Fold this protein.
Amino acid sequence: MLRTLEAERARGRELFASAGSLEELEAANIAVLGRKSPLGEVQRALGALEEGQRRELGRAVNEARTELADAFEARRDALSVDVESALLAADAVDMTLPGRRRPDGSLHPLTVVEDEIVGLFLRLGYRVAEGPEIEDDWHNFQALNIPEDHPARTMKDSLYVSIPGHPELLLRTETSAVQIRTMLSQPPPVYIVAPGRVYRRETPDPTHLAVFHQVEALVVDEGITFADLKGTLEAMAKGLFGEDRRIRFTPSYFPFVEPGAQIGVTCFRCGGVGCPTCRSGWIELLGAGMVHPKVLENCGYDSERYTGFAFGLGIERVAILKYEIPDIRLLIEGDVRFLERFRAA
Ligand code: PHE
């Protein structure tokens, strides 16, 4: 029986070592250490032996079992590592493969123009201010020195919001309302730009929209003069349309500024000599003026000590001029064929 034992030890080691997979190893385990294996039979035969022999042989059987069980486990660990690395290999990502490309999106031309205008003023040290699109009569009109009987406040131009108990609420008609909110929220000096959406009661046509965007600028400080307004607008016109741009001021009326002006820039197509786009050589771009003392006072500012200027320009208007867009409505229709023109190269 001892010989059988030795032979089994050798056979078991050999079988375990040569098992090529976990399945083969499991089969070898049953054949070597199972109940019906030669080793199992030797073990069963122990009972029939006499005391001394039984102890001796029993120890030898145990040794053989321990050794073979260790060999089994060692092989199983080795095979498991193989299985794991095979799984990992099957799962591996090839970093050298080209990625799946999605078509590039692009910023909407209005966003591009707004960013450009706001960026210009941030570089001049201005800060961005914002206000609500639903305004009340006081911020949108009264504080801006727009009297009760001014045509701008009639139902014809404004869109009122019908919230029971709040007859004075409307969709803001100009970002100038943000001038008021800014001055009420801080003491001078003020250097802000306020981009935002505004609403008017209009039927859209090639040059008008009912919902459009403006950028308002407001400066209030000691010693601000009309020359500061001129210099600032000139810097903006050159920044937006190119260095050889010139600007002109035409007297105009806005209740919240005095004096008020309409500002034109030389046509970027013909350079100012006159062409079908501009006719006169000039393109009217925005409204501006020196902040009316009454507006400063409405916000609690000392109009003896502080002066300021303000202007507001339509972002859509700048966009159609800058990109020579024939119909302003193209900007809101979301037609991909149109928008693709603005995809960054
Ligand atoms: N709010 C005016 C408009 O919408 C523009 C403007 C702004 C004029 C500031 C003067 C000063 O037409």
About this structure: The mean pLDDT is 90. The first helix runs from residue 2 to 18. The two ends are 87 Å apart (CA to CA). Residues 174, 176, 216, 254, 257, 260, 287-289, 310-312 surround phenylalanine (CB under 6 Å).
